[in-house]
Amino acid sequence: MTRYEKAAAGAVALMAVAAYFIFIFAPEDALQHQAQRIFYLHVSSAITAYGCFAVVLLGGIGYLWKESLVADRLARAAALVGVIFTTVTLVMGMLWAKPIWGTFWTWDARLTSTLVLWIIYAGYLMVRRLAEPGRQAARFAAVVGIFGFIDVPIVHFSVTWWNTQHPGPVVINDALPAGMLVAFLITMACTFVLASVMIAVRYRIETLLDRQAEGLHAPAPVIPAGEVSSAPR
Amino acid sequence: MRPLSVAWAVARKDLTSEWRTRELVPALAQFIVLALVIANFGFQFDSHNATAIAPGVLWMALVFAGLVAFGRAFAAEREQASLEAMLMTPATPAAIFAGKALAAIILLVACEAVLLPALALFFGVQVNASVVLTVLLATVGMAMLGCLFAAMVARVKARELLLPLLTLPLWIPFIVAGGQAVQAEMGGGSSDQAVALLLDFDILFLVLTSLAARYVLED
Amino acid sequence: MSAIVATSITHRFGSEIALDSIDFGVDAGEHLAVLGENGAGKTTLLRILATATRPTYGTLEIFGVDAWAERRRLRARIGFVSHAPGHYPALSAKENLEFFCTLQGADPRRVAATIEMLGLSEVADRPAGRLSRGMQQRLAIARAVLHDPKLLVLDEPDASLDAEGPELLKAVLRGRTAVIATHDQALANKLCHRTLGLRRGRLVGVPSRLRVVH
Fold first, then answer.
1. Is B212 exposed, middle or buried (0-12, 13-18, 19+ CB in 10 A)?
2. Cα separation of B71 and C185, whole Å?
3. Residue among C86, C95, C99 whose CB faces B81 most closely
4. Contact yes or no for C188 and A231 at CB 8 A
5. What gap in Å lies between CA B215 and CA B210, rounded to an integer?
6. Is residue A199 domain-resident?
7. Does residue A219 belong to any structural domain of this protein?
8. Domain count along chain A
9. Which of C120, C6, C100 is nearest to C58 (CA)?
10. pLDDT tens across B88-117, in order?
11. Can you tell me the ipTM of this complex?
């Protein structure tokens, strides 16, 4: 087994451990019953996704400032993993919302900003794919990543502010009894590990892709400089 | 070639071109009036809910008009060649960008001069100085962001799809704050908080887009 | 004194290689012709020399400084005529030049002198979009010399020019360093001191530094 395969196996095993904590260790919620168990992975995914996008931000800044290819590759890898986790967050959120709120969707601050997050980084991935590969793609994506990361808290804030102007129902009770807190923290940690492994694997893939693209270029043989052969005047 | 005079020269050049060819502004004005007419039939409104619907119509029209206007600032092939000609000078990309954004803002404001009175007329809502200020502030911020991403997608495939995809998430704060401001004003309340918010967003994105301009315009 | 020193210039578009390890130098005051078929890489090379494009690999020194790092300042000393016209069709020839004069930070009085030199006096107030191809090309050249650059990079400047073209170009090139891409061997002979051949992105023949000119 390569070290990537070992790491992946380890991450999956950890997720199995987390699953134990989610389904067996954690007590059932009095109000929401089994549906509440979605919350552990849902919130873990959300936080992990934000973490990934923070890496994209740093990678983007690193590329623009230092022209660091490593930073760019890291950003590429983290963006993909981040979008995956954002998708998981959204889907789990909708699965949870239906039994609890009776609707799949509502325009509260968190859901709205998570959706916006998804759109921004889907845009990031598209720009990477559609721009001229190499410098241009890296540069444009870095700009998108930086603006996107700054935008999300602003969107969150705007929608929260809007909701204070238009008070509505929606309250999420965040108080957690001890058993649930333990389960949550463990799930959080395991999800982080999973994300890190995924980023590492993707980083490796990006490195190999970069090398492959460069490998197509075989430098021309160097011709020793000789006397000038001028065209006639 | 100090940055301000460069920016102003670029803006003047774009506006002169538009004035002589008269391509964009009539098209946008037509679009806006059409949007209002469709809104009338699409939303069953009467004198009671007009103040609830009118702000929404205003922002939808602005967003779509904005996408067209800013997209066009950088889109055409000849625009790309001209843009490069401008970059092949000592002038800083940020100044060139500012000039193009300024021209786009002025053109969009010209359309808003049609939109707002038409809105007041067709929907019977009050369009006072605060509403105008709100729309102007939002236009500035949306223009800076719209032009930045328009410059980016101009050199990329699938630009018609990418421009809204990249720009709209960044316009949401403006639409939320602006929408609230207009709603409040039309409903007889105060929009001061919302307008202050718009100003903050404007300043933030003005700084950010100026910093980002050179990475987007140049190689 | 070297005006241009190009070392291992390589440029890729995705996986396609446009220029492959190009090495050459151009001395101050020298006129270099770049000859080659369509698709040989002439345009790419010229764009790199004009600092319009940054090469994927390689180093380029112009007037002794790194071309890309100092590009903004260098552009005041470089005049570039590319394939696309790059002027504004709705503005008159004169207005176009005045605009670029502002961007270049050059003396506004040069506009009149440049119009005169390029034979554009009669059409100076006509919208640039309504000029003939030949006049548009002259306008492009005018824009390139407006700020009295030390280096001229011209991509097929003879295209669309009438019979007076070569003489005009000769006058324009006087006293400047120039790199000209062309198909036309005769023009190269008339205007240039040396040629460089490109085929499919690679140098054909042996490039080397020029001995001191005159």
1. buried
2. 43
3. C86
4. yes
5. 10
6. yes
7. no
8. 1
9. C6
10. 999 999 999 999 999 999 999 998 998 999
11. 0.89
| C100–B1 C-beta distance less than 8 A | no
**Who contacts B88 (Cβ-Cβ below 8 Å, separation ≥6)?**
C50, C51, C52, C75, C78, C80
Q: Give the CATH fold of the C2-204 domain.
A: Rossmann fold (3.40.50)
Q: Which of A133, A216, A226 sits opposite C208 (nearest CB)?
A: A226
Residue A145 lies in a domain: yes
Which of C54, C206, C210 best tests the A interface by mutation, with the highest count of A CBs <10 A? C206
List residues of chain C with CB under 8 Å from any CB of chain B: 50-54, 72-73, 75-76, 78, 80, 82, 84-91, 95, 99-100, 102-105, 127, 143, 147
CATH number where A62 lies: 1.20.120
Exposure of C6 in the CB half-sphere (CA atoms within 13 A): 26
Question: pLDDT for A24-65, tens place per residue?
Answer: 877 777 777 777 788 888 889 999 999 999 999 999 999 999
Predicted confidence band of residue B63 (pLDDT cuts 50, 70, 90): very high
- DSSP codes joined into one string, B112-165: HHHHHHHHHHHH-----HHHHHHHHHHHHHHHHHHHHHHHHHTTSSSHHHHHHH
Task: Please indicate whether, in this complex, the C-beta atoms of C103 and B21 are within 8 angstroms of each other.
Answer: no
Identify all chain C residues contacting B20, using CB atoms and an 8 Å cutoff: 90-91, 127
Nearest residue in C to B87, CA atom = C52
Report chain C residues whose CB lies below 8 A from the CB of A213. Answer: 14-15
Q: Which domain holds residue A99?
A: 3-166+174-209
Going from the C-alpha of A217 to that of each of A210, C42, C120, the distances in angstroms are 12, 19, 46
Q: Which residue in the block uniquely carries the two structure tokens 């421009």?
A: B163
pTM of the model: 0.87
Q: Å from A1 to nearest chain B CA?
A: 41
